[in-house]
Design goal:
alpha/beta; TIM Barrel; Immunoglobulin-like; 2 domains; 9 helices; 21% helix; 20% strand; globular; binds ligand LM2; binds calcium ion; Alpha-amylase; Alpha_amylase
């Protein structure tokens, strides 16, 4: 189920360019993602959505919060991120750059507020002209057993599936007509060259409806079944657990990002966990091949479950670990800077998202950092080689090999460490890909010398890493 080869030398690394507009995603595919070896890019929910026209009550000060896109009103592709033509051009450009496109698909619900949208669709809570009427939504009393019509108990199977998630009109995904509309939408995207989906609120759709929907989907332009990553957060019992959804697709690594946070940064603030625990990263979680892993996504960066860009060097180090270790299909998240949790992405006054500028502090381009692209290259070169030569100091200095293909050390301490490590690699001089790369046999950054016994004496900077593969020999 992993996305798989998308271009020369690529494996499965995905970037998640949350709320980047289509024009900016397209140029990033050509200029950065393709050349750096990313195999895929996840883009934001592309269907027409709520466009707020007035502020809500009390503390509400943001007219166009990032979450407007999670209230779709039709399957027309006019959105905050651009027009349908721009979306199609973006998919084409990315594919040409060797980068497959994965779409965030909202199939559980429509809106919970408003009557105006980005594409001009007129709607109300249970009525979407030419698409859905009240008979297409679960109703309080008949379908949903909670008194308010909302999900009150997230461990109650019927409520989770048939009540409203934060007041969002809940689609009857068990109804043939609804399934057909959803499949027509997703198949249109597949026809445009899309390779798969991040399925929003998949836990609230349920396994049976997700499987039935996928049976209606066409093959991608590459002839594959679309890759599907289901949003199912942990903590629910049995049927509601991420593990119970792995028969319906891959799942998002929403417990894995908690493990990463706890290893890299514990609380009280400024205390650190132990990288040494990551020897068993992913233990107790769904299988590697069924998990889309990340250090954070748009929800967890705000809700405290994960590290976020404000963690600076610690965040970059965690991204490096994720790319180096090999649990899950790794995804690197890049979006906009924020203070309030409901902030808008950089936009015009009417909510149209402006072009991404990675040089501006308004945007955070984690995927383009040398520390990260170096490890994307590392990840692609080591492939599926197993983790070997694990070494740790019991605390925050770790090192390991990926078979005989590559070696990495990571230091989450505030002081540098110098050690002699067994690397498992052949004797030679290697280019540290966290800071340099090899062009015409020369390394643009520091090198590491491995002796005849495979050992190397290496200084790992504070909050730094050293990594190289057998392809990085100079
Ligand atoms: C998701 N996964 O299952 C998304 O990852 C998450 O970001 C979405 O919530 C959620 N499911 C629905 O797609 C976000 C945001 C919510 C926001 C919703 C809908 O976290 O705060 O809810 O999108 O836009 C907002 C208001 C909420 C209100 C709701 C409906 O914050 O107070 O509920 O709209 O009007 C009364
Ligand atoms: Ca539902």
């Amino acid at each position: 189920t992993a996305p798989g080869q998308a271009g020369p030398g690529r494996t499965d690394v995905m970037a998640n360019l949350f709320e980047w507009n289509w024009a900016s995603v397209a140029s990033e595919c050509t200029d950065v993602l393709g050349p750096a070896g990313y195999a895929g890019v996840q883009v934001s929910q592309p269907a027409d959505s709520l466009r707020r026209t007035e502020l809500g009550n009390g503390s509400d000060t943001v007219l166009h919060p990032w979450w407007e896109i999670y209230q779709p009103v039709s399957y027309e592709l006019t959105s905050r991120m651009g027009s349908e033509a721009q979306f199609r051009a973006m998919v084409k450009t990315c594919r040409k750059a060797g980068v497959k496109v994965y779409v965030d698909a909202v199939v559980n619900h429509m809106t919970g507020q408003g009557s105006v949208s980005y594409g001009g669709t007129k709607y109300s809570h249970f009525a979407y002209a030419g698409l859905y009427d009240a008979s297409d939504f679960h109703q309080k009393g008949t379908d949903c057993p909670s008194s308010t019509g909302g999900i009150e108990d997230f461990n109650n199977l019927q409520q989770v599936r048939k009540c409203e998630l934060v007041g969002l009109a809940d689609l009857r995904t068990d109804k043939p007509k609804v399934r057909n509309e959803l499949a027509a939408y997703l198949n249109r995207l597949i026809g445009y060259g899309v390779s798969g989906f991040r399925v929003d609120a998949a836990k609230h759709v349920g396994q049976d409806d997700l499987i039935a929907l996928q049976k209606k989907l066409n093959r991608t332009l590459d002839g594959d079944k679309p890759y599907v990553a289901l949003e199912v957060f942990g903590g629910g019992p049995g049927t509601l657990s991420p593990e119970a959804f792995t028969g319906a697709g891959a799942v998002l690594g929403l417990d894995a990002d908690i493990q990463l946070k706890n290893a890299f940064k514990s609380y009280p603030a400024d205390a650190t966990g132990s990288l040494a625990t990551l020897r068993d990263f992913g233990a107790g979680l769904p299988a590697s091949g069924r998990t889309l892993t990340f250090v954070q996504n748009h929800d967890t960066e705000r809700n405290g479950d994960s590290l976020n860009y404000k963690d600076g060097a610690t965040n970059l180090l965690a991204q490096q670990f994720l790319l180096a270790y090999g649990y899950g299909t790794p995804q690197v998240y890049s979006s906009f800077a924020w203070e309030a949790t409901d902030a808008s992405p950089p936009s015009s006054a009417d909510g149209i998202i402006t072009d991404t500028d990675c040089a501006s502090p308004a945007w955070v381009c984690v995927h383009a950092e040398k520390a990260v692209t170096g490890l994307v290259s590392f990840h692609n070169h080591v492939g599926r080689a197993p983790v070997t030569h694990w070494w740790d100091n019991g605390g925050n200095l770790i090192a390991f090999s990926r078979g005989k293909a590559g070696w990495v050390a990571l230091n989450n301490d505030k002081v540098p460490h110098t050690e002699t490590f067994g690397t498992g690699l052949a004797a030679g001089t290697y280019c540290d890909v966290t800071r340099g790369s090899v062009t015409q046999g020369r390394c643009s950054g520091p090198t590491v010398t491995v002796d005849a016994r495979g050992q190397a004496r290496v200084t790992v900077a504070a909050k730094g890493a050293v990594a190289f593969t057998k392809a990085d020999r100079v």
